[in-house]
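Render this sequence as a predicted structure.
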Amino acid sequence: MQKSIIILFSILFSVCAFAQTRIIQGKVSNEAGEPLANVTVAVKGTNTVSMTNENGDFEISVQNGQELQFTSVGMASQSVVISNQPSLQITMLSDDEEVDEVVVIGYQTVKKSDLTGAVSVFNPSQMKNATVSGSVGDALGTLPGLNVRTAGNPGSEGKVEIRGTGTFGSSNPLYVVDGIVQGANRDFNFNDIESIQVLKDASAAAIYGSRAGNGVIIITTKQGKAGKMKIDVSSRGTAQWLPRYDLADRDLWISLNDLAFSNANRQPANHFEANTDWQEEVFKTGWLQDHNVSFSGGSEQSRYFISGNYQGNDATTIGSSSKRYTLRSNLSTSRDFGDHVKLSIGENIVLSNYSIDALNTNPIIDVYRMLPTIPVFDPNNAAKGGYGFGDGSRDVTFGTNPFAIEDFLVTENGNLRTRGNVFTELEFFKSLKYRLNFGFDLSNDKHLQLRKEGFWTYNQPYVPSSLNKNQAQYRGYVYDNTIEYAKIFGKHDVSAVVGTSYQTSNYEQIWGTKNDVLMTGNDYFTNLDAALNNPKTGNYQDIEKLFSVFGRVNYTYDEKYLLSLTMRRDESSKFNPKFRVGYFPSVAAGWRISKEEFFNVPWINDLKLRANYGVLGTSNIGVWDWVSFITVFPQVAFGTDQAVYTGMTQIQLANEDLKWEKVAQMNAGFDAVFLDNRLNLSIDYFDKQTKDVLTPMQILMVTGNNGGNPVVNAASLQNRGVELAAEWRDRVGEFGYQIGFNGSYIKNKILELGYDRDEFTQWNTKSKVGESIGDWYLIKTDGLFRTDAEVQDHKNSKGELIQPNAKPGDVKFIDFNDDGQITEADRQYIGRSMPRYQIGGNIGFDYKGFDLQFQFTGAFGFLSFNGPRSGYDRFDDNSNYRVDYDPWTPENPNAKDPRPIYADSRNVRGDQDRWLENGNYVRIRQMALGYNFPKSITGDLFSQIRLYVNAQNLVTFTKYRGLDPEFLNRSIWERSYDGGAFPNPKGFTFGAQITF
């Protein structure tokens, strides 16, 4: 009996202990790590309920074994079973079924479910572990349909191309920041960005008309939210370094160089005594730092966001560094005048100061052009500055000593910029809103170049010291007036916007230069008054104006049927008054099949078909290209006293009939959500045709045209393609994961060149009607001649010996035109220089405060020309050689590489395909691990403490043998020619973020 009582007592005690109520605390955040306020926290099956505060914190009474449920409007509900957790960290995902993401499409916002155009949304949180040091577009490489190429030197801004090359001029997209057309370049603080939308087709971008032909990137900066002041401090530092060539050391270089001289029947050259690893000397570990602080908060009526940022980049090579300071202020306030009238005013203003000590040479080329036998410093050159370089009596090279040129040539650029907008809105009856938006962009630029006395290369003539100073001012203003209407009538949802926009810009530059700069000790003065001779000055001004009228109507019936109509009229001063006006319409429609009564597929949550067609424009010409220029250069002597008179003459022909490039684009696609909103899928097909492409027309100089080729409307281009974007998000208990993937296929074609042209050649590429822009056009090779018999057997169809001067070990070229000799006429199409396929993606995991992120990009279907390899594989002009060069010799008849011959170009002509390589690559851009400290550690003072480490560009899968397969070349004619492009650095980022 006593034993039974003890057992019963123990059971009751255990039940009581298990059912004991305790207080548990926690924090609720969204996917970006931002706290969520007003989240309902309820104990399932009871009346116990709590709410999160503005910092996302909550506490609630709960018993072990009970289930907590978390719900909030617009977020997917979650539940957690309580055991013995000391605290909870909850991350809630957005629920597309309950609320639609709002997308900015230009002068309006719409629900993503109501979109009829092709819009990609970039979440800046994807870059929360990395530092963006170039333009904003540099971060967008994982979006479908975007080709983004970047470089790693300070001050470099990447190239962003949306849906292929549709013009022969600039293909840069239009950037719109907080509703105002502005740049988003290297002086823009990426930390200030709230969201980025990329408008890719005519329906989405037509509201911007003549400037939207290359696509539109819309940036919305952060605004304050109602609540107590939020202080966010972040600091990150990146140790970065460059990949390196595998180059010969002194001993190997001398052996190959002596062999090249021997094969040329020359005595070996005398060699310098040095043993210099130029990569070790020139390349270094750079430090990129970014520090940011922001203050935000306010009430329901007045809100504020203020931020400051410093970014410094001391580069990965000698000779360059940059600094950037930014200060942003976003303020807004509003007042209700009854239930039907609301007045709002606000401003978004940023002040930036960017300065750079720019490179004066290309160290990526210098490190293989300079020889390992040449020292960095050479006392024998003391009279010429003391640096080492080539010598006619010993190792001859025209390579540049980068230490010397960066010492004797100083280039400094600075930019002080104020830009932003102020606005006022007046809302009537909750359906009608007038907005006046005044934007401004004020910039003051300074440039200094000091050329000291000194030498940096062999055979360099003496140049006196000189000083050049350049100052410029830019003043840009935008005046936008819009009226927006939005109303729901039963099943009818109507929204519309009409407006006008007037933009004016004024750029003026003045410069002066003088020689023989005075010195104090070893220092040169940097004032023009301190230079003595040959004064020269110059000045010019560009003025541009654009006036626009636009409108858009969006109509939705019963959330099923969608229609959008857009029209814009632009008038630009860049054209003759007869051709200044352009009209840019678009029409789009959509059908949400999933809303139909007959549609009953339980695993499909949403399905929408959409299609559109529209016309966009571009004006890829200068401000004055339609105007004939007069020069006052000619002078003549007249009369008995032979007085000199200044004359005038027209040296450049101009085309007064210039008109807009017009881009007609069709887009069709669908958006779908599957499996309880876990899988999102979008597929688009587009056909983009550009007509009246503006291009320079080559005219013989004997006609008197000596000032450049006049611009004409000549060509027509086409880009067709398919884009796919898929994302899977799910959460299993406290473990969450996300997998996003996108891919695109783009085919570029020249439809017409105009003026009876079928093709034209640019360096090693040819552009031909019916083919892509800039396909490789080179002489094919067929290995090496191994024996004299092979040389004698290499004949054309007539039995003529094709390469009579060749010997075993020389390159065998294909006589494509069968004329018995190897000339430029033997070039033929080799392959594409444009990637045909592109991929990108993000993979993320989070668990109990830890998060892991991978970001990758890739490109396929093209060939790259390895320019550096063509440099260090040639022996006719001395440079360094690659360490695995395998030269043909009689003792090595099966060698991979031709015999080296000094001062002989037979094997190293630059128009052959030996250095054309597979350009395909897949790169893991980011591998990041972060940790958010729990509430038990952060306490009440901090709402977030986060630490993270990120590895960039460490892993690349490619067969390309250059430094970086993702190199930047801005020329559309030779886009995949690597001419010694500055590679993207590898690096590790260490960062911390603290939120109060």
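Summary. The longest strand covers residues 531-557. The two ends are 61 Å apart (CA to CA).
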